[in-house]
What does this fold into?
Amino acid sequence: MTADPMAEIREVFFQECEDQISELEMGLLRMEIGQGDAETVNAVFRAVHSIKGGAGIFALDTLVRFAHGFETCLDRVRSGRLAIDPAGMALLLRSADALTDLVRAARNGEGAQDARAQALATELERLAAKGDAKPPSAPTLPRAAPASSPLRTWIIRFTPKAALYAHANETALLLRELSRLGTAEVEIDSSALPDLTEMDPEDAYLSWTVTLATHHDAATLRAVFDFVEDDCDLDIFERPDFAFQDWDNTAAAESAPQPMPAAAIETLPPHPVEAMAAQAESAGTVGATIRVDLDRVDRMIDLVGELVITEAMVSQRVLEAGLARTSAIAMALEELEALTREIQDSVMAIRAQPVRAVFQRIPRLVRELAAQTGKQVRLVTEGEGTEVDKTVIERIADPLTHMIRNAIDHGLESPEARIAAGKPAEGLVRLVALHRSGRIIIEVSDNGAGINRARVRQKAIDHGLINTDAPLTDDEIDNLIFLPGFSTASAVSDISGRGVGMDVVRRAVQAMGGRISIASKPGQGSTFTLSLPLTLAVLDGMVVKTADQTLIVPLASVLETLRPDGADIHPLDNRTAVLALRGGYVPIIDIADVLEFGSRIGQPEQGVALLVESEGGGRAILLVDEIQGQRQVVIKSIEANYRAVYGIAAATVMGDGHVALILDVDTIVSATRESSRLEAPRSLSQVF
Amino acid sequence: MALTVLTVDDSRTMRDMLKHSLIAAGFRVLQAEDGIDGLDVLKRETADVIVTDVNMPRLDGFGFIEALRRDAEKRMTPILVLTTEADPDKKSRAKAAGATGWIIKPFDPAKLVDAIRRVSA
It folds into this structure.
């Protein structure tokens, strides 16, 4: 944080702009699908209006000008003077995009793309003109300070009406204001004042005459009465010096009392304030929120993580001290454990955010891609309110963007090809988020041509990724697109060919403890499914022991555990073996061997087999010596504290204070698989 | 004793900006996010002057002013309306609702302070 308050407010402004832009986009999209009710249009208008207001403070002129034109247009829509057709809607959407860019440019202090904004501004002006013959007025700039002039004497005759007082204005204050402008003489005329019994306390009966000697001009004097000009009779003129006495007498005589209207305040129609408040509350749309620096939340999460570990350590010590489970201290500890869990969940919930933040960027991306590829695309999103940890949200943005690019660029066909295939010209891309068994699932599907397996296979052979005669199932062929260096577009296209392949997407997803899978049907389209943990701070793990080392296997990857029967184990060579399992064969991976812990104690059948599922590598058996239990562990980055270690995803601190390593199941399984598929007789330690 | 000013605006930028300008001028500042919130704040606190935006969710500036003018205690509290343009239509609507005066955005802090001093004793 900086000490400069203006810089801080500027930062707040840009943060707020992000919210406003989200509001704006959401509202426009609702309008686009015909769900734009009055409040939606109002919210859209307000968003642009607020951005303009803030931009004005910081003299961001380009932004102010553009927002003004945009706002004018929206105001016409809001007041019902302008109906929006699809072309107009598209213009509003593009304008929202341009506004986003202008805000970003302003934030980064860059020069804005004036040409594009200018062209859109002209279009907006034309659109607004449909709703109103009169062109939008330019934003008012602060008035220049008046030039000083010679001393002159002015006469100000002022008779307030009751409305002036009803509006909480005050004659005394106006007179005070006048007297600040020069030397004033004030006279009061109370001739209209009735008898006390007949007096209405809310009415106005007095009038004033001020003689003011000042350097200011008439406009400045009038400005004092700016707020009250409709609520009084006002006369301002320069005193002809020679006739002062005569005039003064006449003026006093002429200042007759005015008939007073009833106080405006009494005639106002009742305003349903309470009803509105009640409605807002019952709708539950508005909850009190605060903005908190993310660092503070993270610090708290860190501390709660330490609390969980400490609590586990205390429990362990109590257990070791041989205290009965029913002892008061053990029971109190149990309560503490439950509380600690609850605190942890609550703190995690603070970081949870709806995926809307990411989903909202997608419509714009789709519009741009559709324009670039000449394809017609309709985007459907579902489950935008699904909540997930903020870090996860931040980290899925890039993979998701690439998946959408992929779906439009590679998945959907051109309108001509679609029509030829008997499909509607407009392709569909669906983006869905949902919670399933403690994870968040994000699906990107298209109704395009599906994966061209023959072509994928050929590419993989051309790139030397598989042997010419490799016997692959459809599923395995589909999964080839996740291999490094794979690209199905014959020519590197503008869109997907940005040096990012699906392998990068997979790696990004795996780095978060996520999985990605694909399902494709020829002629019907493809579905990519992301499965991600809800948080990256804790992990449900299985505590195992092998070669005297304690390890954690992420519970999410463990399908089942079993004690292998010696007869089911079929060695392939002196290092590798497979396990016969329900009619199929699953490769056995000896963790102690792979991680070079030395030999595992005993024969395979004396160990415990964990059937795990990995992304890309399929199923495998991880062989360990024993299972010690299951527990939630706090993830500590090993990379940040030491360096990246092959086969290890992270570390944690156990209840006894020892460090245990968390296995990176996907890396271990897929590396074993790949090395056996390529038939390279190398151990993993040589591969990596 | 410092004058207390209640600022009602749904834009946090504007609220911060108002607060910054007003505190620098020696006022005490109360804040609210919209009309409903403003009425709420006034149930607990007393403001000498109110500065309100017009366009706000839930209860806009006009509705907020009308509600205050019906309240026996607050009907004499000066209320300044923040408006973006010198829109005569908006001004007269604000007037009809019971506003004391207006401030044109983007406001000049000196003019804002000046306007507040003009309407407060």
